[in-house]
């Protein structure tokens, strides 16, 4: 209940600050005004098409970024040479602010949908690579050894050890 009370107190303070003139209506519109505008937009066609487009961009970006991140994470976790080659690149690029790369995406991909989806893809990619790699690395060594002793192929190793063992970290 405390977090809800803090948020409500903040909204009440914000509303009071705007109504008493402590905060500019231009820069800090009152929460009641925001809700009225949202309600008006929801009743017309001014809200739903942009919201649908935004959700499409977000969905495509997450699908592309998370999908490729999971695949690369599984490859890096299953193969030491791939991990040795790509781990420094992932470690160097992950801390970069993704929004700072947006001008580069605009130059390379243009101002259309591709640059916006690429930014979301990049934002989803690195957390998935890192989590998936950590998930593969936390699999108990006994499972790897047992699969190897019983002659598991790479496909069987992926299907029987890597996928089920790393899935909690991927999710």
Q: If you had to describe this structure to a student in words, what would you say it looks like?
A:
The chain has helices spanning 2-19, 31-43, 48-78, 80-93, 102-109, 113-137, 141-149, 154-170. By secondary structure, the protein is mostly helical. Helix 3 (48-78) packs across helix 4 (80-93), helix 3 (48-78) packs parallel to helix 6 (113-137) and helix 5 packs across helix 6. 15% of the residues are buried. The model has no long low-confidence stretch (mean pLDDT 92).
Rounded average pLDDT: 92
Q: Which runs of at least 5 residues are low in confidence (pLDDT < 50)?
A: none
Beta-strand proportion:
under 5%
Structural class estimated from helices and strands: mainly alpha
> Secondary-structure element sequence?
HHHHHHHH
For this entry, give a set of tags.
0% strand; 8 helices; elongated
Element layout with pairings:
Blueprint: H1 2-19, H2 31-43, H3 48-78, H4 80-93, H5 102-109, H6 113-137, H7 141-149, H8 154-170
Quick rundown:
The chain has 8 helices and no strands. With 171 residues, it is mainly alpha-helical. The model has no long low-confidence stretch (mean pLDDT 92).
